[in-house]
């Protein structure tokens, strides 16, 4: 299994943000309810990743 680092989390968070942004734009422009649901799902996962990032980042800083 791949080790999770603050650097790999940053990439994942960027991907989730892009997914949220695209789906939110689709919902905003076309009113697509499925896009709104996908945007909510992406932002919820991003919230989880941010929490994990904060934890790992503090561990990384303390170890340095």
Q: Can you tell me the overall shape?
A: elongated
- How many DSSP H or I helices? 2
Number of strands: 0
Strand and helix order: HH
Estimate nothing, just give the exact number of structural domains: 1
Return the structural class: mainly alpha
How can the largest sheet be summarized? none
Please tell me the overall pLDDT: 94
Strand content: under 5%
Any idea what the radius of gyration is? 15 Å
Q: Roughly what percent helix?
A: over 70%
Low-confidence stretches: none
CA-CA gap between termini:
24 Å
Give the key terms.
single chain; 64 residues; mainly alpha; 2 helices; elongated
Describe this entry's structure for a reader.
The structure is a single chain. It is elongated, with a radius of gyration of 15 Å. The longest helix has 31 residues. It is built from two helices and no strands. The chain has one domain. α1 packs antiparallel against α2. It is mainly α and 64 residues long.
